Structures are given as C-alpha cells and as structure tokens.
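FORM 7B: Structural annotation worksheet

SECTION A. Query
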Amino acid sequence: MFERRVTVASKVGLHARPAALVAKAAAAQPVKITIRKDDTDPVEAGSILGLMTLGAGHGDEVVLAAEGEGAEAALDHVAQLVSSDLDNN
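SECTION B. Predicted structure
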C-alpha cells in the first residue's frame, strides 16, 4: 500500500466545490483511493459525502492511500489537488 501525507490548502477545507473536484479526480483513477485524518477511519476519496463527513479543514493533514497498479501516480494526482487552493476553480 502506498500513502501520501498532504495538507489541505483550500480555505473551506474539503467541503463544497473542493470536495467535488477531489472526489471526481479520485473516482477517475484506476485504483480505489482512501483518505483519512490521523484520528479517523478512512473514507473513499471518490465520494463527495465521504470527503465532507471527514471534516478536513484548511491546514489539516490528511493521508491518502491506495494499492495496485498505478497507485503511486493516482496518489500523486489527487495529492496535488488536495494541496492546491481549489476555492476559485
């Protein structure tokens, strides 16, 4: 299993538009990606509802995880989004 630790850059956290953009990108990957905060159970990164219930706010560190062929590239792509300010995209 591969993991990436990322800091949430969007000022609203992983809510509303940023959650939708991250979920869409994660769902399009060839592997299932999960996301969690250190003190929570992982949720599917491809689920808008999962991302919103995670409660990840601006500046929170999250852990993305995936396994299988293409996992590293998939994690890199989604990690880049999470670490970007998606509030105005």
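SECTION C. Observations
The mean pLDDT is 95. The CA atoms of residues 16 and 86 lie 10 Å apart.

SECTION D. Sign-off
Analyst initials: ____
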